[in-house]
Design a protein that fits this description.
five-stranded antiparallel β-sheet; 13 helices; Beta-lactamase; binds glutamic acid; alpha+beta
């Protein structure tokens, strides 16, 4: 057994879960009914290791919509399908602003980065496919490679996302006027909404994180989802932009490339060490799972995951 697998198997994830459940700060997102109805008492932690093993606490088979945790994976697929188009239209600089800020890169009209809605609307439009359905299927198939299992879309979440998607429509109109969005606004919002509405469990999300961490190869199936270069590029942007406007604090405290989402999930990719996911619906004021952030910090400390750690042998 490797050192990291050994240390991970000694962690008591159920005890950590109970410790996290004692914290009752945060508020469940209420932007759509499906999120507002989430049970605030759910809390799950999963680790996916190099040998394909998944270690998990209770509550890690609960399904929820992936929301913004899909963004790194859609970015990866768009890079695989049309890297030039992605680089022309989507930057890689952190914004320090909310995920749905109506703001493009000054001067160029590009989306600031793929981890905010502007960028994700574009990356979802750049994956291969000539219709909303074809692009949604490409995304679903690609996410399935990351997870090592077939995934599905929750249609009621798609419907709610579209009904409450005024800011996404505004962003899409803005990018269409700049020429960066090349498909109709409604199609772009519909495609992005479908990507956010894919159902995952915390165990599946941990494996998705591990696939990036191990250079694009799923450690459970041995199948390649994306190239090693793409996995590295995606983790770089997760490290700098993945946790909304709290990315700097996250990097100091946790130091692991990650992406948070309004459903309360956080996916983490610790390069060559492991993938992890923590999920609990109540969010801190920046929109990151309050318990999830504490859980991630504990995992990083206990397993020495910080990518800038100088103490790891
Ligand atoms: N579907 C959400 C939106 O675009 C995702 C937000 C998130 O998870 O940050 O508004």
């Amino acid at each position: 057994m490797t050192d990291i697998a050994d240390a991970a198997s000694r962690l008591d994830l159920d005890a950590l879960r109970l410790r996290l459940l004692e914290r009752d700060e945060g508020k469940v997102n209420e932007s759509i009914p499906e999120l507002a109805n989430a049970d605030p008492g759910v809390c799950g932690i999963a680790l996916a290791l190099r040998d394909g093993q998944v270690l998990s606490s209770e509550d890690t088979d609960v399904e929820y919509s992936i929301q913004s945790a899909v963004k790194p994976f859609v970015y990866a697929l768009a890079l695989a399908d049309d890297a030039d188009r992605v680089h022309d239209a989507v930057g890689i600089e952190p914004t320090g602003e909310a995920f749905d800020a109506i703001r493009l890169e000054s001067g160029s009209g590009r989306a600031p980065n793929p981890m905010v809605n502007a960028g994700a609307l574009l990356t979802a439009s750049f994956v291969r496919g000539s219709s909303i359905e074809e692009r949604a299927q490409r995304i679903l198939d690609g996410l399935g490679l990351f997870a090592g299992q077939d995934l599905r879309i929750d249609d009621s979440v798609v419907e709610s996302e579209q009904k409450h998607g005024d800011r996404n429509h505004a962003l899409a109109h803005l990018m269409r006027s700049e020429g960066t969005l090349q498909i109709p606004v409604d199609d772009a919002v519909a495609g992005y909404a479908r990507s956010c509405s894919v159902l995952v469990t915390t165990k599946q999300l941990a494996v998705m994180g591990a696939t990036l961490a191990f250079g694009g190869v799923n450690p459970m199936t041995g199948r390649r989802a994306v190239s090693e270069d793409i996995a590295r590029d995606v983790m770089s942007v997760m490290a700098t932009c993945g946790v909304y406007d709290g990315s700097g604090t996250w990097f100091r405290r946790v130091g692991v490339p990650a992406k948070s989402s309004v459903s309360g999930a956080i996916v983490l990719s610790a390069p060559q060490l492991l993938g992890a996911a923590v999920h609990s619906p109540p969010l801190d004021p920046q929109g990151t799972s309050a318990r999830g952030a504490v859980g991630a910090e504990v995992l990083s400390d206990e397993l020495d995951l910080h990518v800038l750690s100088t103490s790891r042998s």
